[in-house]
Structures are given as C-alpha cells and as structure tokens.
Amino acid sequence: MKALVFHGPGERSWDTVPDPSITAETDAIVRIDSATICGTDLHILKGDVPEVQPGTILGHEAVGTVVEAGKAVTTLEAGDRVLVSCITSCGRCRFCREGHYGLCTGGGGWILGHLVDGLQAELARVPFADTSVHKLAPEIADERALFLADILPTAYEVGVLNGKVTPGDTVAIVGAGPIGLAAVMTAKLLTPGRIAALDVADARLEHARKLGADVTINNSEGDPVAAIMELTGGLGADVAIEAVGVSETFELCTEIVRPGGHVANVGVHGRPATLHLEKLWIKDVTITTGLVDTSTTPRLLELIANGRLDPTPFATHRFELADTEEAYTTFADAATTNALKVVLSAERAQSTAKDQTEALVGTAV
User: Fold this and answer.
1) pTM for the full model?
2) Angle at 38 (CA atoms; ends 215, 290), nearest 5 degrees
3) Which end of the chain has fewer CB atoms at under 10 Å, N or C?
4) Per residue, what are the HEC states of 108-162?
5) DSSP label of 219
6) CA distance 189 to 165
7) Do the bridges between strand 28-36 and strand 12-16 make them parallel or antiparallel, or are there none, so unpaired?
8) Alpha helix (H) residue ranges in the chain
C-alpha cells in the first residue's frame, strides 16, 4: 500500500510500505476513506515531538471502513463505517476507567502517527478497536465527521471545558487556526457573553467572525493586552484559551486573563515558555494543560447528527490521498494559502489497493 512516511525532521514522502496486519486480537484493519493533516503533524516534522521515530506513518484523523477485525473485537464487523479517534483507549487501565483516555497506560493514548503507524495511508491498523472508533450513522457524511477525530473534541475538552467557560463569560482565544476556530465554535455551546479571537492574520480573523467570534483583534496592529482590558473594563478575560503552542501566545494568555480567571493551554509546545509567577502568584489564576480524551466525541456526533453543529467550514482544501505531500505543502503555508484543514479523499488512491481490500473484506466476512 501507499502511505505518508516520516523520515526525520523536515523529511517526509509518499512511500510504498507493507500492508498492515492484525497483530493483537483487539485490532481492526480500516480502509482509509477520508483523512486530514493536523498541526501536530507539522510539529512532528519540525522535530518538536522526538518520540516519533523515522519510518513512522503519520496521521491520527480519519474516517474509514472496517475490512478486518481481530477475534476479540465484538462491536465491529467488515463493512462498518467508522470515525477513527486520535486517541486510542485500552478501556481497562485506571485512566481509561476514569474517562481520561488520553492518559491511557494500557498501550493507548495518542499513539497513532506518534508511537505506532498512523492514518495517512490506504490502510491502517487500529489497536483496541472496540473502544477506539465510533460507528457512523449513514446520514453523517465523511467531511462532517472527520473533524471530530481531533480538533473539535480537543478544542472543546482542553480549551472550553478545562477553561470552565460559563454563560456570560468573556472568552479570549489566542490563535485563530483550526484549533482556535474550533474553540470559537464549541465555546458557543456554553453561551458565553462574548468571544474575542486574537491572531496576526486577517484572513483567519475573518473565519473567526464567520464562526461566531464577537470581537477580533489583530495582534500585529496594536497592543492586544490593552484591547482586552478595554473590552472588559480593565478586568481581563474570564477565560483565555491558548491555541498556538509558542511561548509568546501562552504568556499573552497569562497577561489578558482576569484575577480569578482560567488559562486553558491547548497548543502543542516544542519549546519552554516562561511562567511569570512574580505577577501571577497573587491573581488566583488557574492554568490547565492537557491532551484530549475524546470522551465528548459521542456528544459532538449527536450535535452534528441533529444539525446543531456543522464543522464543514473547516475544509478549505481538498486533495486525493495520493497527493498528501502536496496537501502538506498547502497546509504548512497557511499564511499564503489560507488553509484551515485539508481533506484527503481516498477514492482514486484506493484504486491500486482495490483487489487487496476486497480480499480482506472477503476474508473477514
């Protein structure tokens, strides 16, 4: 089969690799029908995630079709259409039993495209399939489900819920990339008083306005701290959500949050950030960090099925799966291309694997 392979910092290629196979009875083999690229994949390519070894297939967001299931898998069968979550859950360890799947110590957590081969491929092995994928109703199209693999639950859980957003709050979201925009979209579910989006790109701020931001602030055109203080009568934001992953934006969040407020860090940081305790110690500020658990994915799927949530505006560029390298170039140059999320469709890319996929389905049935 073909897959996007990481060969070390700055190095990737669309390679021919061995087909995945069942290695544990809890595995499933999924044909990838639709996938996307995450900002975390770009962090990997920058060398910010050294745990990823050269030779690893990247990707942790996909919708696909089950073609084979291990003997211990009881809830899935060949032909089932599924959302493959970015988080894998063993379902048995302490953290999984608490619903903290991102902290799984039983072989799960964020492993796809990180510690094991990922989903930017024609076929993928999904460990712990019973507890790590979500069956999709026929009425939910691939593109409507795809962004529930990562960005929506990440923004909702690590940003909005960790930030303790409540009705009437002023929520400041620093960074209007895909995660920041997903935070805008999901924060609205908790009826804040106003949402302010901060970024240096006018195009992304325009997206934020379309998705529900009440105020947009271009950090490069003035003092964002002064702008937030003016907006809040000098108090600061009730909740500041960091959605970039660099020290400057984290430190900005700690400057614009009010005394007694919450800073929710969502961004993936590859370098240290300064924690100004000399200023924060007296402000009674709560700072949270975290990896998504995807425990809210079923709820978000219900909202999509019922027409209460529509993530399709995130799809700004579409490619065939075989053109994943071109898609990476487009996604990485978002300042020029205005890309939010790219959708990788496997319709044609799968043609070379059609016979082997049909054989797998036939074997599984």
Assistant:
1) 0.91
2) 75
3) C
4) CECCECCCECCCCECEEEECCHHHHEEECCCCCCHHHHHCCCCHHHHHHHHHHHC
5) G
6) 10
7) unpaired
8) 39-46, 94-97, 129-132, 142-146, 151-154, 178-187, 202-211, 224-231, 247-256, 277-280, 297-305, 324-332, 334-337, 354-364
Reported as a single tens digit per residue, the pLDDT across 190-239 is 999 999 999 999 999 999 999 999 999 999 999 999 999 999 999 999 99
Of 245, 238, 300, residue with least CA distance to 263:
238
Contact assessment for residue 253 and residue 276, using Cβ atoms and an 8 Å cutoff:
no
C-beta neighbour count of 179 within 10 angstroms: 28
Beta bridge partners of 32: 64
Distance CA 310, CA 303 (A): 8
Distances (CA, A) of 345 to 25, 145, 167, 238, 320: 29, 14, 39, 40, 5
Q: What is the rounded CA–CA span in Å between residue 48 and residue 44?
A: 5
Element (H, E) at 2: strand 2-6
In sequence order, the 6+-apart residues with CB closer than 8 A to the CB of 97 are: none
Q: Which residues contact 359 (CB under 8 A, 6 or more apart)?
A: none
Q: What is the dihedral of CA 106, 112, 116, 121, to 10 degrees?
A: 150
- Cα distance between residue 354 and residue 297, in whole Å: 31
Chain segment 258-281, per-residue pLDDT in tens: 999 999 999 988 889 999 999 999
- The residues pairing with 288 across neighbouring beta strands, listed in sequence order, are 264
Joined tokens for residue 239: 């909740």
Please compute, for residue 100, the number of CA atoms within 13 A of its CA located in the half-sphere on the CB side.
Answer: 10
CB 93 within 8 A of CB 30: no
Q: Check if the beta carbon of residue 122 is closer than 8 Å to that of residue 347.
A: no
Give the up-direction half-sphere exposure of residue 328: CA atoms within 13 A in the CB hemisphere. Answer: 23
